[in-house]
Amino acid sequence: MWQTTYRNHTSAEQPGVLSLRAGSGSQAVDGIIETPPMNGFLAEAESLERMAREGAAHWIGAIPQESIDIMMTLEALPRSARSGAAERVA
């Protein structure tokens, strides 16, 4: 299970926090990942600029497969909401 308050634009007043629960039941492990305050669009633009100047290894944005995974998840959400059942994402 993932829970997040992460916003694309974080600040000292609204930091990006990702709460993670890995596993289930008594075997579940909780963790928290905090991100520094930043403007998400600016961070991605700066990464794109570094990639253009220094090569693909400097890109920190989503890789193509992650982008596909995100879209498949977004497509599954309304199906799940309509059916009331969990949707499997390939």
Main sheet properties: 3 strands, antiparallel
Number of helices: 2
Measure the end-to-end span: 17 Å
Lateral arrangement of strands in the main beta sheet: 1-2-3
Overall pLDDT metric: 82
**Share of β-strand residues:** 15-25%
Helix % is: 25-40%
The helix-strand sequence is EEEHH
What tags apply to this protein structure?
single chain, 90 residues, alpha+beta, 3-stranded antiparallel beta sheet, 2 helices, extended
Spell out the blueprint of helices and strands.
Blueprint: E1 2-4, E2 16-22, E3 29-35, H1 40-54, H2 64-83
Antiparallel strand pairs: 1-2, 2-3
Task: Give a structural overview.
Helices cover 39% and strands 19% of the residues. The protein has 90 residues and is an alpha+beta fold. The protein has a 3-stranded antiparallel beta sheet, with no helix packed on it. β2 (16-22) and β3 form a beta hairpin.
